[in-house]
Amino acid sequence: MRVFDLGAKDGPQEASDRILTIPNALSLARLLVLPLIYLDLVDGRLVRAFVLLVVFAATDWLDGYLARRLDQISRVGTLLDPISDRALFLVVGFGFVLSGLLPLWALVVILIRDVAVLLVGGVLLLRGVSTPAVTKIGKAATFGLMWAFPTFLLAGIVGDGAADPQPLLQGLGWLFYGVSTVLYYVSAGQYAVEVLRSSR
After folding, report:
1. Does 5 map to a domain?
2. Structural domain tally of the chain?
3. Which of 33, 93, 99, 158 is most buried, most CB within 10 Å of its CB?
């Protein structure tokens, strides 16, 4: 799990109120590119969608690394990063469903967890209670899901589209999806335990 902390300096790093930082620019760019990926998926431009998805996934790790390495951790960044991740699952997920690359139930499983966490987080914020920090398991789950999507997409590119995807790559995509989804719900359980503990 050390990979998620690469770039961290010795000692605690405080989040600043800065907005114009390199990591924040990367997070914003990820949000802006999501409509392009969606349109590419529904219009059948799978190769370009694949390239954009890979860049999206890579910059998701890169912005965290740069924030730690350049001492540019910010409060805006700590909000933008998870928002861009959830937006990916929502926007690109629907693109995958509409293009036939992913069944609807697989997207719903992810979204149910996200909606539950979002609702609990909103209630905590309204009560003036800080939300739990993202866990290593949560980061690993998001990372795995983020790579499951391009793997499914690559299976369609190498095969004959959504109608006949390449079996080995599709199986690998389901492996990423299955393991990551389990971890996704485990991390939600960790957040629930932390919320109950702090409420006491």
Report:
1. no
2. 1
3. 93
